[in-house]
Each structure stands twice: as C-alpha cells, then as structure tokens.
Amino acid sequence: MKKKQQDLKRLLFNIASLVDLGQEVTSAKGIDEKMKTALYVVTGMFSVPKAGLFVYNADRHKLELVTCKGIKDADGTSIDVQTKYIKAFQKNTPYNISEARNNSFYERNAEAFRRLQAKTLIPLFAKDEFVGAICLGKRLSRTSYLHSEKDTLKVVASQMAITLHNSSLFKKIKNQVNENKKLYQNMRHIYHDTIQAFAAAIDAKDVYTRNHSYRVARYAVAVARELRWKAKEVEGIYIAGLLHDIGKLIIDKGLLNKGETLSAAEIQEIKRHPQISYDILSKIKFPWKDVVDFVKHHHERIDGTGYPDELKDPDLSDGVKILAVADAFDAMTTKRTYRKKLSLFDALREVNKCLGTQFDNRISKVFFKVLQKEIKGEIKEAQILPHLDKDFDPTIITTLLESITAELSY
Fold first, then answer.
1. Spatial distance between the Cα atoms of 316 and 300, rounded to a whole number of angstroms
2. pLDDT tens sequence across 329-377
3. For position 155, what pLDDT does the model report?
4. Domain with CATH 3.30.450.40 in the chain
5. Is the Cβ–Cβ distance between 370 and 401 less than 8 Å?
6. CA 298 to chain centre
7. What is the CATH number of domain 204-404?
8. How confident is the model at residue 222 (pLDDT cuts 50, 70, 90)?
C-alpha cells in the first residue's frame, strides 16, 4: 500500500510538472528566460541539482550552452557534435554517460562532461532535426532512472526540443506561422498521449474497464462538439473524461474486480472515488476550465440522489451532465463483473427511462442525436459508433432515436 501511494504521488507530481512545463514553453517570455525556467522544472522533477541546456549550432557542429543550473564556470562550454554522432543518437532518449566512456563522442568531449558533472545526456530532436541537448548531473535520490521516468524524460525532451526549434524558426523565417502551429499541435498531442497513458493505468485496475476512460472521453467530445463548445472547452472535457476515474488508483483492486454482490461498506468505499479524484486533480493547475469539477461530480444525478455531494439539476454544469451520461452509457454497453453488457437497444432505452432522474433530458437527447447522425453517416469523424458492437439493426435503432429526439432544440 505504501509503494502504491508513493507511485501515485510520483504520478501526480509528474502530471503537475508536465502541465507547468507545457505552460512555460508556450508562454510569451523570451527564449532564454523560457528555457531557464523549463530547465529548473525538469531538474525539480527528477531531483537533479546540476544541469545544462544546449542548442545545436549546425555551422560550427557544436552544442552551445544556453542556460545551466548549479554549475560554476560553465560559460563558454561547448560539446563537439559531428554528423556521424547525430545519426547515431536515438531521438529524445536519455544516455548514461558512464556507460559510454569508450565511445569516441564521449571521449572527444570528456573535459566538457567533467566540467558539467554530467551523468546523463538527452539529445533533443524536433521532427528529424537535431536542435540541442540536455545534460543532467547526479540525482539526489536514486542514481538510475526507472522505465516510467525515462518515458517522462522523453516527453519533456520533446517539449523542449519543439520550443528550441520554434525559436530558431522565428529567428530565421518570421513568416513560417503554419509550421509553428503544427509544432505546437504536436506538443499538445504529446501531452495528450501522456494523459492517455495515465488513463490506461487507471483502467488497468479493473479487468472489465479496459479503454473505458478513452471511450468516455470520446463520447463526451462528441456531445460537446454538437453543442458547439469552443475548441479549448472540448479539449478540457476530453481530459476530464480520461481522468474521471483516477481516484480508483487507490481503491483496492480486489474490490473493483469482485464478482459477487458487494456489501454496503464495499459500495461506499467504491463511491469514494469521485471525491478522491477531486482531491488528486485539484492540486494540478490545468489550462482548461472546470476539469476537476467535471470529474468530481460525474456520478451526481439530476434528482439529487447521486454522490459525492447529492447536487441537483440547477447546481450541475453541462460538462458534469455530459460526463454522467457518457460514463453510464459505456458502463451499460460493456461487460462488468456484476452483470453482462446490455445491447445497444436496451442501453438506449435505459438511458431514456432515466431522463429527468439520473440524466439530464437535453444533454442525453443531444447524445442520442449524435449517435443518430453517426449511424446515418452525417458526421465524418464518428466518436461513439466505432466503439459499439455492430450487431444491431440500424433501422430499429434509428427509429428509436428519432422518437426520443423529436422536437429537440439546443
């Protein structure tokens, strides 16, 4: 249990640090100030008191120091990098310097690494272009990096590489706006991929909920888009969908996977997960509005009999209502330990039966309307239909949906 809590703390710290790093590298600060702050975030994540950030000068074939932390007399330090060395690097992958002393690149730059007290080198690549490197000194905690920490280092390296690359582009060609947008879009994808990895860890706790968080996120996005939410708001509910069950990470796995009937005490224990999720995520400064609110209240009901706060309709936001129906619908259409999955027809009838009590009438009907459009092929990027079993009669389902969504306005 203690190790589980430590792993959770490390996970949360890394999420928060990645958020801070993402906000820092996309800020309006000058490149020198931006990269110095970013380097301090990285060293804090991995308890490294000494570090240096280098940018690659292609004309001189050298890595030139941009900023450093905890290193005296580092000014003017450079690292010789020939083309053959660059080709041998793995993109944004940390190297243990002590294990590569017989390598000609490391021997050639032994004095520079000694002056930097470097233990780890991370070559930075944006797309296929070598743009710089990070040198990290000895850690204060463990000397080596866990596999999960190496994965996080790769995400960090990708973010910093994109920022360095963007800086170079702005200096060279100010009119390359489209390229800049693509690079920042790539960074956002990296961030999303990291969150999805955390969502996979959540779903892995329960053998019956594999990819549940991903599906809930996609369903929520479909409804938000139909309601014409702004792009950043849609992105926010997507993140909320991925993380809505993060509180289950500290609920006993045996309890989550228990097949027989749960006791009243066990049910109450599982019902703690929205509040736990809120306690976890409220410590992180997300760039999206209301993510933690959506997560905390996704098990509330319109009639006020939900949990954890027994809120009623007027106090529930559209985001909460969207997550509530998306989460319940996915639970109905997938197998669980306590019951078989429902057919699409039965799941739709069950949601419809609970309109005005468990689910919001308008939001749920918008969900039905989106599914109806996807079945008819009226939406190019279907978010709901691809995740459902295809063994249903489209005519019957369409007729049912049309009867439910009649006179819908939103």
1. 8
2. 999 998 876 668 899 999 999 999 999 999 999 999 999 999 999 999 9
3. 82
4. 2-188
5. no
6. 19
7. 1.10.3210.10
8. very high
Who wins on pLDDT, 203 or 109?
Answer: 109
Q: No. of H helices and E strands in the chain?
A: 17, 6
Say what the pLDDT of residue 30 is. 60
Q: How far apart are CA 242 and CA 385, in angstroms?
A: 18
The 3-state DSSP class for residue 224 equals helix
Rg of the chain over Cα atoms, rounded to whole angstroms, equals 25
Q: What are the Cα distances from residue 361, in Å, to 233, 239, 329, 364, 405? A: 21, 24, 14, 5, 10
- Contacts for 179 with CB less than 8 Å, ≥ 6 apart: 169
Residue that wins the pLDDT comparison between 249 and 367? 367
Q: Pick one of 3.30.450.40, 3.40.50.720, 3.30.70.1350, 3.40.50.2000 as the CATH number of 2-188.
A: 3.30.450.40
Which residues lie below 8 Å from residue 228, measured CB to CB, with a gap of 6+? none
385/216 Cα distance (integer angstroms)? 12
Q: Which residue has the higher pLDDT, 184 or 243?
A: 243
Q: In what order do the strands lie in the sheet with 95-96?
A: 78-80, 62-69, 51-57, 129-136, 120-126, 95-96
- 3-state helix, strand and coil shares in percent for the chain, rounded to the nearest 5: 55, 10, 35
pLDDT at 209: 61
pLDDT (0 to 100) of residue 140:
87
Count the neighbouring beta carbons within 10 Å of the beta carbon of residue 364. 28
Contact call for residues 278 and 294 (beta carbons, < 8 A):
no
Give the pLDDT confidence of 165-189 residue by residue, as tens digits.
776 654 543 444 455 566 556 656 6
CB within 8 A of 394, min separation 6: which ones?
375
Asked if the peptide bond before residue 274 counts as cis, ω within 30 degrees of 0, the response is no
pTM of the model: 0.60
Q: Judge whether residue 83 has pLDDT over 60.
A: yes
Six-digit token pair at 11?
A: 């996970």
Within a 13 Å sphere around the CA of 10, how many CA atoms are in the beta-carbon half?
A: 13
